[in-house]
Amino acid sequence: MTEAGAVPVPPDPERPFGLYVHFPYCSARCHYCAFYFVVGRDETRAAYLDAVRGEIEAAARDPRFAGRRVSTVYFGGGTPSLLAATDVDRLLAAIGRAFPKGEPEEVSLEANPDGLDRERLAGLRAAGVRRLTLGWQSLRAEGLRVLTRTHGPEDDVAALAAARAAGFENVGVDLIFGWPGQSADAWLRELDEAASRGVEHVSAYELTVEEGTRLARRVDAGRFHLADEDERARMFDGTDEVLAKHGIERYEISNFARPGFECRHNLDGWRSGDLLGVGASAASHVTNTRWTNVADVDDYLARRTAGASPARTSEVLPPRTWAAEDLYLGLRTTSGIDVGERLRPLREADRAPLRAALDRARADHLVEGEPRFRLTRRGRLFADTVFDALLS
Ligand code: SF4
């Protein structure tokens, strides 16, 4: 739906864009997961990959993307490490044909530790994947059990060794903290152990209870209790220090990297770069236009077969909402956002409430800096308050 007065702003044809491929297939369900995924349904996989390639080809004819360069490719899911190397190869070839203006600078793939071996990873690397994100989630058997993961700590460690043996020099790990029974000290020790293993990137997410998940039902029924709130604040707060000791620095609220190993794909998103998302549930945005594909493999396939758009929702943001969203994204990064520059094109009636929200956040010591604003240490703990004020 387009709000009255909101007009799509044409993109800069010279600015490259990121391309996200959603592969929703998983071998098991994790109870906290709010992403769109399917377990089984293997009989639809070949048709799904054909449809995704078709969507990439269609995007090359879309004036918003035609003739532009793809800067980064990110395979997310679901479990993209279930993809055969030949499938990744064919998808990257389709992207290269559709957008021939140079090779992407970064090709990332999310991988689950179970079932990963050197041979599979070497195949993915030969197909063009250069950056791997291992979904460790925890290095503790108890953590993996309460998170209902299907792998053990030994699989986590073996997956990293296999990645190195396959030649990957850019490996990140995802970790979740705040599960029941976990103390802040235990989390910080676990994090230290993860960093000691020499990874280039760490994403550390607090366990959150997302609506509609099995976890939400268990919490509602009183059968699952998150770690104590004060403990979780200590976990969040101590994370920087532990990782910094290993030369891994924060560059976004939940993301840390050795210098030069920040995820370019995500960084571009936080800097409001354009994104083409293909596959079921994938989200896209070009300047102030946002759209999201249907989150249903069957519906997605039916639409693609009929030559129809897979987009379920589409929206054009008015100037104030667009600026608020850019500020929200930019503040998340440690490099921050030049607020004056972003607010300058707005009418005074749109600019004033955003400036007032930022001034209040500054007075509360939640943001700092000039001309680039960023969240303070305290602001990262209460980031939702800042973002709510901007987006309200
Ligand atoms: S967390 Fe990952 S592996 Fe687990 S169900 Fe969600 S997408 Fe699949």
What's the SSE blueprint?
Elements: E1 17-23, E2 25-26, E3 38-39, H1 45-61, E4 70-77, H2 85-98, E5 106-111, H3 118-127, E6 131-137, H4 141-146, H5 153-165, E7 171-177, H6 184-196, E8 201-206, H7 214-220, H8 229-245, E9 249-252, E10 255-257, H9 264-270, E11 275-278, E12 283-286, E13 289-293, H10 297-305, E14 311-316, H11 319-331, E15 337-338, H12 339-343, H13 348-363, E16 367-368, E17 372-375, H14 377-381, H15 383-391
Parallel strand pairs: 1-4, 1-11, 2-3, 4-5, 5-6, 6-7, 7-8
Antiparallel strand pairs: 8-10, 9-10, 12-13, 13-14, 15-17, 16-17
Helix pairs in contact: 1-2, 1-10, 2-3, 3-5, 6-8, 11-15
The structure holds iron/sulfur cluster.
Structure description:
The chain has 15 helices and 17 strands. It is 41% helix and 20% strand. The protein is globular, with a radius of gyration of 21 Å. It has 392 residues and is an alpha/beta fold. It has two domains: 254 residues, Alpha-Beta Barrel (TIM Barrel); 76 residues, Arc Repressor Mutant, subunit A (Orthogonal Bundle). Helix 3 packs across helix 5, helix 6 packs parallel to helix 8 and helix 11 packs antiparallel against helix 15. The structure holds iron/sulfur cluster. The site of iron/sulfur cluster (SF4) has 10 residues, from loops.
How large, in whole angstroms, is the Cα Rg?
21 Å
Q: Give a quick account of the main beta sheet: strands, pairing sense, barrel closure.
A: 9 strands, mixed
Sequence stretches where pLDDT stays below 50 over 5 or more residues:
none
Number of strands: 17
CATH topology call of the largest domain: TIM Barrel
Specify the CATH class of the largest domain.
Alpha Beta
